[in-house]
Amino acid sequence: MALPLYATPGQRIWHYLYLTVCALVLFFLVSPLIVVIPLSFNSAPFLHFTPEMLTLDPDGYSTVWYKSLFGMCDAEGASLWTSCTDKWKVGAFNSFMIAVMSTMLATTLGTLAALGLSRDHVPFRRAIMGLMISPLIVPLIITASGMFFFFAKVNLVSTLPGIVLAHTILGLPFVVITVTSTLVGFDNTLMKAAATLGGSPIYNFFKIQIPLVAPGVISGALFAFITSFDEIVIILFIGGPDQHTLPWQMWSGVREEISPTILAAATILVLLSIVLLTTLELLRRRSERLRGISPA
Amino acid sequence: MSTSPAKPGGPVLTADGTPLKTSLERSLKLSKLRALGLILPPLVFLVILFVIPIGSLLTRSIDDGLSNKVLPKTLAAFERWDKTSEPDEAMFEALYLDMTAADRLDLSKLGTRMNYEKSGWRSLLKITARGLNRIDGPPYKPAILQLNKRWGDIKFWQSLGAMKDPVTLGYYLKAVDLKYDGNKNVMRVKKHNRIYQMLWWRTFLVSTIVTIGCLVLAYPVAHLLATLPLRLSNLLMICVLMPFWTSLLVRIVSWMVMLQQNGVVNDSLVSLGMLHDENRLAMMYNFTGTVIVMTQILLPFMILPIYSVMKTIPPSYMKAAQNLGATPSLAFIKVYMPQTVPGVGAGCILVFIVAIGYYITPELVGGKDGRLIGNLIAYHMQNSLNWGLAAAMGTILLVAILTLYWVYDKLVGVDNMKMS
């Protein structure tokens, strides 16, 4: 992408303009996430940079909002600005439990579907695939409304199983997509070779196929996990007071008044997403290596 | 084949003596069944918990059976009535019989339902139901009129016409600012009550602006990512994927911090001297806020498909075009850009589909004039409890989205959807 030596001045200007535009767009993408991090260490209850922060004065920074986030009520100053509560801890716990349960369900069901869809001679393959992916396309507000009507009839509104089942539906398409795309590169002769060497179909499935599609399964599970962990519309529509998750706390917090405690929570979630992103990238590389696709 | 030699000219046999054709068909059938066996559990799960709920949305949007359940005799009497003269004793008798037989809860639900057609119904039914036990026999007409003189108002009786059928399109009409009159003719609602057409239009407008905004911002970045050496582009790709992976609420909170009156953007502009302290920009709780935040949130959905298409375009094409005498810009427009059309199309449809159903973002940063159709659906689901209307609006939105999804499928194929 470097500019050739013979470029005209016009081309040079154009090239630098292009690079500037790209830099600005990338800045637009990440700047909001980065701004939150220093602000969450603000010692004052403001959402903007105080003069002390700008001059890098240590007094301008503190971890008071993190203490209040974790419900440490004796933290000096915390109770001055926010009421002392463990709602964030409860929220994080609920989010985590719901996400783990729905991820396990979605991963199992999604992997089954992907394995079935990737076989030869599947009738209505396209239609089934379209249906499996549709929860991703239908707006959440519509899914949530429909589920509310249906769940009300079968007494699943405001229950933990109701939320877990709803989140499983949302996570299912991700697992189906990632596992199917891993299976596209799957070399079926490996299974035949294993069969000729005397392995039973079930043995071969667990010893050959599962390890090879594992990266796809895990990254699908990660997608399902983060979808459930972040989900708010379903929680608002069919969740009860016992299902107040982390996003729900943020939602209600933002609607009342944004305090730096929310920024502390946001920072932790940004870090979590970085960890997940890194894991996924490592998995993708591993999968390519296993399947013998060298990085281009 | 050696164990079961085929007769010359006869069908080819397999080792156990069955004809090869039958044997192949059987194994094909078995493999189909095995595949279906794997697909069946997730499919059933999806149908019960997703397809049926969406279906219940559809039935809810046309269901109007309550009036027939609660007021069967009254509606039968309504049919015999000429719709212009004052209602006679028979109609009042039917009304009395229906209302004394009706379940309290049903009656109050019906009052809410009937209020959609003509305001005043709810209180009228309530007052009448309370006074019914004071009526001790026919004639019912004067007795009921004494309970509330509005029963003499012919307009209330006429409005029954809009709800006499167990199935109605009334909610759909309402969702586009139309309504039935007493004779089931479609007419527009009064001017100051028209809000839905404007909201559909605004939703379309916001989605279009966001889609175009994303396209303009995504194209150069996707090009840069596709042409840079891999190591560098992977690094920049993190900038694209990180927001994609961050919680939606975190992104919205970040934007609130940025765009507030005392937010980072306004502060920076003031301290740079580009803006006077008094006229700080209002970038949140309005249309602008919705568009800015949605553009940033949906940008990765545009960059990724365009990037993956650009990645497949060999750089030699551009070189060949320039070799043949084209200027770099002409080669870019005539050779490079047409090849990126599939990615652009996919990205645009994807962003548009997601944008059109947005609810959380406009709710938090949209304020009053940044509200979209999704917010109204949520409002009718949770606050006004007009579920029929919410269902009808949801169905219209769903049909629009499924149409776009179908186009997307024709264009790109759902199989080609890739993550990361």
Would you write up a description of this structure?
The complex is a heterodimer of chains A (296) and B (420). Chain A has 296 residues and is mainly alpha-helical. Helix content of chain A is 73%, strand content 0%. The mean pLDDT of chain A is 85. With 420 residues, chain B is mostly helical. Chain B is 68% helix and 1% strand. The longest helix of chain B is centred in the N-terminal third of the chain and has 43 residues, at 20-62. Chains A and B meet through helix 1, helix 5, helix 6, helix 7 and helix 8 of A and helix 1, helix 10, helix 11, helix 12 and helix 14 of B.
- What is the element string of chain B, with H for helices and E for strands? HHHHHHHHHEEHHHHHHHHHH
What structural class do you assign from the helix and strand content of chain B?
Answer: mainly alpha
Shape of chain A: globular
Instruction: Estimate nothing, just give the exact number of structural domains of chain A.
Output: 2
Please count the beta strands of chain A (DSSP E, at least 2 residues each): 0
The multimeric state of the shown protein is: heterodimer
First-residue to last-residue Cα separation of chain B: 50 Å
CATH architecture of the largest domain in chain B: Orthogonal Bundle
Give the helix proportion of chain A (percent range).
Answer: over 70%
Structural class from helices and strands of chain A? mainly alpha
Major β-sheet of chain B, in short?
2 strands, antiparallel
- Please count the helical segments of chain A: 13
Q: Tell me the CATH superfamily of the largest domain in chain B.
A: MetI-like
Give the spatial strand order of the biggest sheet of chain B.
1-2
Tell me the CATH topology of the largest domain in chain A.
MetI-like fold
